[in-house]
Amino acid sequence: MVMIDAHLHLGSIPSGKKNWGSFTEYKKIAKKIGIEKYCVVPIGLPKNFADKTTPDNNSILKEAEKNKSLIPVYWFNVFDLPKSVDERYKAIKLHSDIGKIDIDNKRVVNFVNKINLPVFVHTNESKEYTSLGKVSKLAKKVEVPVIAVHSGSVTGTFFKLDNYEFPDNVYFETSGIQYSVILKKIYERFGAERIIFGSDYPFGDPRVSLAMIDTLEASKKEYKLMTEGNIKKILKLK
Ligand SMILES: [Zn+2]
After folding, report:
1. For 18-33, what is each residue's pLDDT tens digit?
2. Strands (E), the chain
3. How far is the CA of 7 from the centre of ligand 1 (A)?
């Protein structure tokens, strides 16, 4: 079984006297469980969220030079937009908690359309500006695949999901989902073709996301789509 982890961060979380997680640790876990490739964004540090500054995107390209398993993803910040994005990046990512920006904010829509790469967006249904409703609105205004990281995350997602209609370019990522029933509802409504395995390491762990996917009791073929095929197609990987 070859898998691709569609979402993780390069770096550790500093808290107390400790740095939690490391890319070295991630690589060990990946090797152990058969993750062959991984889509990596830099880590957003508390300082980035406080100052509305951009995490260290260059750290990703540097690491990618040494590691062929790494698929670079660019973290974009609407307060600090670049004119262009290095062609080694295969996708871009928005975390709207920097500046509390609506996922379908005009600056986001314009940037996504200009760069024309698949876009990952952090979602949390408990905040209006990061709801799945906003994901749907963004997806209708762009042509590229839109991947809802955490699939809305909280319990409210389970109930609100029925109120939203999603265009076909919306995908649901598995990290940070509070309850398995949320993923089960997504699976029932949209199918395995729209679910994407991601870990959000070092916040999450790929083994947690795989356990979530296990609760779907999907066929082998569907499991492969969720853990490899869908993201491969979205990012046009060989
Ligand atoms: Zn993340």
Report:
1. 999 999 999 999 999 9
2. 3-10, 13-15, 18-20, 35-42, 70-76, 91-94, 119-122, 146-149, 170-173, 195-196
3. 6
